[in-house]
Write a structure and sequence with these properties.
Elements: E1 4-6, E2 21-22, E3 25-26, E4 36-38, E5 41-45, E6 49-50, E7 53-54, E8 62-66, E9 70-77, E10 83-91, E11 99-105, E12 109-114, E13 124-132, E14 137-144, E15 156-165, E16 195-197, E17 212-214, E18 220-224, E19 235-238, E20 246-252, E21 258-267, E22 273-282, E23 285-294, E24 298-307, E25 312-319, E26 323-324, E27 330-331, E28 334-343
Antiparallel strand pairs: 1-15, 2-3, 4-9, 5-8, 6-7, 8-15, 9-14, 10-13, 10-15, 11-12, 11-14, 16-18, 17-20, 18-19, 19-28, 20-25, 21-24, 21-28, 22-23, 22-25, 26-27
C-alpha cells in the first residue's frame, strides 16, 4: 500500500454506463467502477441543477450523492496493524442535519461525522477519519442513514484518499506525541480549505495521532502552510468551533514533578480577524492567551508552569470565542508547536557522617 493515494475511482470520474442509469440514479450495485453501492445513489455532474441550486463538484467533473440509507463501499489493500486515515470531500445539499457514517470491516471501526455545519463558502468541506487495519484487506463503507422526505436529499461525496499514519512517540524533549501536528490526515494540494477532524475520543485511532477532539457535533480544522499561515513547520490546527470543541491529549506524568507547557497561538492568515482567546489547561493549571488577529498571519508564544498531581495529566486547548470571516464562515485561532517537559526536583546530596 502506498503512503498516500486516491482510492480506485475515488474521484468518480469513471462513470456508470448509460443503461445502468435512470436519469441521475445509479441502478446497478456495481455500476460505478470499483464501487459497490446500496440504496438511492445518484451520479452527479458538476454544474447540474437541483431546483434553483447549482451543484458543484470539488474535484474533477463528477461526484456521488447518497440518499436515505444509501452507501458506497470499496475493498482496500492495506498492511495489517498499520494506522490509516481517510480524507474525502462532502457537501450538504437540501437536508439540515446530515450525518455520515464511516466504517471499516472487519471492525468494529466506525465513526459518525456531523456535516450539518458548513465551514467553507464553497459549500464543500473535506473530512478525515482514521482506523487501524485488522487484516490486509478491509472494506471501507460510507453510509448516509438520513430520513428525509425526498430520497434524493443527501450529501455529495467526492475525492476519497487514503494515507498511512505513522503515530510519533513522545521524546525526552517533549512528552506530548505529535505536539507539532506534523503527522495527520492527507490534505488536498489544490483545496485551500484544510481538512476537518471530527469528534474522536480514541487517540489511538485519531486522524491527528496523539490528539483527541472532544465535542458533540463540531470539529477542528487541520491546515497546511501551502494555504495558511502556520506558526512552525508545515501543519497546525485551527480551532474553528469556539467553546464547543476541545483539543486534548493525555500524558503519563509523575506526581509532584514540575512541568512546563509551551505552545504557539496565532491566526491562519485566512482573513479571520478579531480578538482571539485560547485557554490552555494542564493538570490543575491554566493559561489564557489573548491574540488580536488582523487575519494576515502571525503568532505569539505562551507557557504554563504547573506541578503534576497524578500519573496522567490532561493537556487541553479551547478557543473561548466564536469568530466568523467576512463570508460568514467559522474560523478561529491556530494552535501549534506544543511541548511539555517535566523535571524532578533536585534532592540535596545526602550528608555523610565522618568517622573520627
Amino acid at each position: 500500500m502506498h503512503n498516500v493515494g486516491l482510492l480506485l475511482n475515488g474521484n468518480f470520474e469513471y462513470s456508470p454506463s448509460k443503461d445502468q442509469m435512470n436519469d441521475t440514479r445509479v441502478m446497478g450495485d456495481y455500476a460505478i467502477p470499483y464501487w459497490k453501492i446500496t440504496g438511492f445513489v445518484e451520479y452527479i455532474s458538476s454544474g447540474q441543477k437541483q431546483g434553483d441550486m447549482l451543484l458543484t463538484v470539488p474535484e474533477g467533473a463528477h461526484a456521488v450523492r447518497l440518499g436515505n440509507e444509501a452507501s458506497i463501499e470499496q475493498e482496500i489493500s492495506v498492511t495489517r496493524d498499520m494506522y490509516y486515515s481517510i480524507t474525502f470531500s462532502a457537501a450538504r445539499t437540501c437536508a439540515q442535519s446530515e450525518k455520515l457514517n464511516v466504517s471499516v470491516a472487519p471492525g468494529p471501526e466506525s465513526g459518525e461525522l456531523p456535516i450539518q455545519t458548513v465551514y467553507t463558502s464553497s459549500g464543500w468541506d473535506s473530512y478525515a477519519w482514521a482506523f487501524k487495519a485488522k487484516l490486509g484487506l478491509v472494506s471501507l463503507l460510507i453510509h448516509n442513514h438520513g430520513e428525509e422526505e425526498d430520497p434524493a436529499c443527501g450529501p455529495l461525496i467526492d475525492a476519497i484518499f487514503i494515507k498511512t499514519l505513522y503515530p510519533p512517540n513522545a521524546t525526552q524533549g517533549n512528552m506530548l506525541k505529535n505536539g507539532d501536528f506534523e503527522e495527520g490526515p492527507y490534505i488536498f494540494p489544490d483545496a485551500p480549505w484544510g481538512v476537518l477532524v471530527p469528534p474522536n475520543t480514541e487517540d489511538d485511532h485519531s486522524p491527528l495521532p496523539g490528539w483527541m477532539v472532544m465535542s458533540y457535533t463540531k470539529v477542528v480544522k487541520y491546515i497546511d502552510s501551502a494555504h495558511f499561515a502556520v506558526p512552525r513547520g508545515a501543519r497546525a490546527v485551527e480551532l474553528v468551533s469556539g467553546l464547543e470543541t476541545a483539543l486534548m491529549q493525555e500524558v503519563s506524568t509523575v506526581s509532584g514533578r514540575s512541568c512546563r507547557l509551551e505552545f504557539s497561538v496565532g491566526d491562519a492568515g485566512d482573513g479571520c480577524a478579531g480578538s482571539m482567546q485560547v485557554r490552555g489547561y494542564a493538570g490543575q493549571g491554566s493559561a489564557t492567551v489573548q491574540y488580536n488577529s488582523h487575519g494576515t498571519g502571525g503568532h505569539t508564544r505562551a507557557s504554563l508552569e504547573f506541578a503534576a498531581e497524578e500519573n496522567r495529566t490532561r493537556v487541553v486547548f479551547v478557543s473561548s470565542s466564536y469568530i466568523t470571516k467576512g463570508d460568514g464562515t467559522l474560523c478561529g485561532p491556530v494552535v501549534d508547536d506544543v511541548s511539555l517537559v517535566c523535571v524532578s526536583h533536585q534532592q540535596p546530596p545526602a550528608r555523610r557522617l565522618r568517622r573520627l
